[in-house]
Amino acid sequence: MNVDNLFLTGMQRSGTTLLDKLLGMHPAASILSQPFPYLFIEAKKYFLSLSGKSHEKYPLGNLFLSMGADKRAFIDFLGEHQFDLEFLKNTFAKMTGYSGQYTDLDPNHLQSVLQAIAPSDFANIIAELSKALSEPCDARIRGVKETLCEEFLPCLLSNGFSGIIIVRDPRDVLTSLNHGKGADFGGLLKPTLFNIRNWRKSVAYILHLEKYRKFTWIRYEDLVSEPSTFLGQIAETLGISPFNMGMFSSGVKDDKGQNWSGNSSFSAHRGIDSTSVFKYTELLPTEVRHFVEAVCYPELHWLGYPVSIDWRDREDLILGFKDPYPISRPELERFVNGQVKMEEELQRLKILTCACMQEEKDAYFLFEDVYDKLRITIQ
Fold this sequence. Notes:
Blueprint: E1 4-9, H1 16-24, E2 29-33, H2 37-50, H3 71-80, H4 85-94, H5 107-116, H6 122-133, E3 141-145, H7 153-158, E4 162-167, H8 170-178, H9 182-186, H10 192-209, E5 215-219, H11 220-225, H12 227-238, H13 280-283, H14 286-295, H15 297-303, H16 314-319, H17 339-350, H18 358-365, H19 368-377
Parallel strand pairs: 1-3, 1-4, 2-3, 4-5
Helix pairs in contact: 15-19
């Protein structure tokens, strides 16, 4: 049987868990939901240490500006470095008790799995772990879901994986992170600009990876409003039969076949629910909404999300923004009401309107083709 590996990722609170549960209900698929998040974190930390950047507090960062300079080198590292048993054991040991690991792994079975894996490149390590830990083990699609891991996709796609990024309106992402039970899922509050740059990383990789035949992306809003249509498109990309939508009539199931009540920041629900769409209109402060629309103006237009501001007002909205959320992470204080960061945002939008150097395209948009696509949205 031909088996395909799948990697699913996206920004926190963008619907990654909902999508992995829906895909996991397909009879041909087995999806591991955040089974080994530290594997991605530790691989990136190791790479950064080799690059003299071991001080980075958030290795799976937004990549813009200085952090994005080594994108090609990171892909090469993932393909060339041999991740061995010692690395795997140390990584899984660090993950013990980590709340961000959703799929339960039997410790004894895991140890036997790790012992059987020969040192190999990163893509093969993920494929071997997925093969050994997936249930049923003969699934046609073996998937792994992790958040904030878009930079791993070029390596995985080049090694035969399929890839999906799910994206959500950034105003609803912030609403879900900062209100209700958001801290239960996203941890201590982070500055608005820090979160927004992570969201823009997702969009940059969506635009850049469209050329890959085995890559697709989906908006959360489309998934919950027209699940039949958009799950059908994903099934076509993955080469599996269409979803039997009747399977969702009694609710969404987890990997154990139990009813999944969702992980909404606001309410429990049994099935595919669209009540969280446009939640930001009720809860997100107006100044935050306008700031997000200013700094994400081209991305919002490209994705088809509505904006309420005028493009000509972007400078005033950016320079006048004061983040209303309390600082919970001192190491991110530079993202809160910082003049330098706001000037970076203005420069980013400015270079969309004029000719610029290749270095600026890479720094502010990660890839030249992303710059080219976003530039069209404001002309």
